[in-house]
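F.,

This is the one I mentioned.
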């Protein structure tokens, strides 16, 4: 299967979207040259974050400019997973500006996401920077807004939600990667 140059990847904070992206990035053909020592958050009980994240107040803003986006990677070749919570509110524009690229959505209910994000470090998460969310009340409201936007986009484009499993990867990427954890409250979909 030919991968696109980019997969625009979004999920609300706490949706476990970063762990899902990391599983996909183990597949052949993915470019992980955006990973640096400064772009890591490790937590002893959770998967953490790796690579560039795009968003307000972060190293890379959520600008939809190919040159700007590609600057996060050291190497030009390979499929780049472009991660931003803020893509959720820009999905139609992403589709319009990047028609040859894919969009991957991760959905987890609002309160489950909110709780997990706090358990994983909340505002003490060192990377990426969540300071633009200001406080826990704003965080919960943004999770609700982003989840609603993700669901609306999926509905508008008649996308099918599934659990993130080894079979789902095989069916969508024609490759095999082991999914060690299964989460009954997390769903994924992919617009190619």
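My design for it:
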């Amino acid at each position: 299967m030919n991968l696109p140059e980019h997969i625009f990847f979004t999920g609300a904070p706490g949706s476990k979207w970063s762990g899902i992206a990391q599983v996909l990035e183990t597949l052949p053909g993915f470019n992980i040259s955006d990973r640096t020592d400064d772009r890591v958050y490790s937590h002893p009980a959770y998967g953490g974050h790796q690579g560039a994240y795009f968003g307000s107040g972060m190293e890379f803003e959520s600008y939809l400019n190919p040159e700007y986006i590609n600057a996060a990677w050291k190497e030009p070749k390979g499929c780049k997973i472009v991660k931003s919570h803020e893509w959720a509110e820009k999905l139609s524009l992403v589709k319009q500006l990047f028609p040859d690229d894919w969009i991957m959505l991760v959905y987890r209910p609002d309160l489950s996401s909110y709780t997990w994000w706090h358990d994983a470090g909340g505002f003490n998460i060192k990377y990426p920077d969540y300071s633009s969310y200001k406080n826990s009340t704003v965080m919960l409201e943004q999770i609700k807004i982003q989840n609603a936007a993700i669901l609306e986009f999926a509905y508008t484009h008649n996308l099918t939600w599934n659990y993130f499993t080894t079979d789902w990867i095989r069916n969508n990427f024609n490759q095999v990667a082991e999914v060690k954890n299964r989460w009954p409250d997390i769903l994924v979909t992919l617009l190619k």
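Residues 6-191 form one domain.

Talk soon.
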